[in-house]
Amino acid sequence: MSAVFALAAAFSNAVYVATQHIASTSGRPAKASGLRLLAYLLRSPLWLFGWAAALGAFVFQAAALKNGQLSIVQALLVTELVFGLVLRKVWIHQSIRPAAWGSAALTCVALAAFVAIDEPQGGTPTPTAHAWVSAVAAFGGAAAIMALAARWGSPTRRAALYAAAAAIVWALVATFIKATTETLLESGIVAMFTHWPVYALAVGGIAGIVLVQAALHVGPLSVSQPLLVIVDPSVSVILSVWLFQEHYTHGPAAIGGSLVAFATMCVGVVALTRTAPPTMQAVATGASRQ
Question: Angle at CA 89, nearest 5°, toward 62 and 17?
Answer without folding.
Answer: 35
